What we know:
single chain; 100 residues; YaeB-like fold
Amino acid sequence: xxxxxxxDAAEVELRxxxxxxxxQREGLGxxxxxxxxxxxxxxxxxxxxxxxxxxxxxxxxxxxRFPYAIVYLDEEDRIWIVAxxxxxxxxxxxxxxxxx
Length: 100
C-alpha cells in the first residue's frame, strides 16, 4: 500500500465539505469523512483502478454517496491527492495545483 500526501488546498476542501455536511445534519460530516477515508483506502490498494483523465495522468475516484471525487496522481513513491472536488464545480479548477 502506497503512502499518500494531500495538497494543502485539498485539505481545506475536505474540511469545508465535512463542516458543510455536518451543518446539514448532525453526524453527516462524519459519514462524509468515513466515505473519503474508504475512497483513499481503495486508491492506495489499487491506484490504477481509475482511468487517467488526460495527459497529466490525474485520476478521479468518486466518494460514494456524495457528489465529490478525489483527484489524484499515482506517483512512483506516493499517491498525491490534488483535490477533494465537488463535482458541481467547474471541471479542472484544480489543474493549477499540478506540477509543471
